[in-house]
């Protein structure tokens, strides 16, 4: 095994650790915003894993999938942040 492949394997292990950290944070997050950030972390880690696997297997088509996923993830982030903000605004109005 050569050095670049070893580096990619180590990076994949670290990404998997990041995914588990995101899952734990999403499960115990005290607020919706914390859960949303954890979900975004998990998504970014998943896309990172796709890119690392593409490098490891030398499959350029996986880069296209990662690019499409990032574009969809960006739109999802905007939608989720608006949803969280609306709900927090409604809760503040109800308590006032």
Structure in words:
The protein has one domain (3-95): Orthogonal Bundle (Helix Hairpins), CATH 1.10.287. The protein has helices spanning 3-28, 32-57, 61-95. It contains three helices and no strands. α1 (3-28) packs antiparallel against α2 and α2 (32-57) packs antiparallel against α3. The termini are far apart. It has 96 residues and is mainly α. The protein is elongated.
The total of beta strands comes to 0
Percentage beta strand: under 5%
The number of domains is 1
Computed over alpha carbons, the radius of gyration is 17 Å
CATH topology name, in short, is Helix Hairpins
Oligomeric state of the chains in view: single chain
Q: Indicate the low-confidence ranges by residue numbers.
A: none
What can be said about the biggest beta sheet? none
Helical run tally: 3
Question: What is the global morphology?
Answer: elongated
CATH class, named Mainly Alpha
Question: What is the overall pLDDT average?
Answer: 88
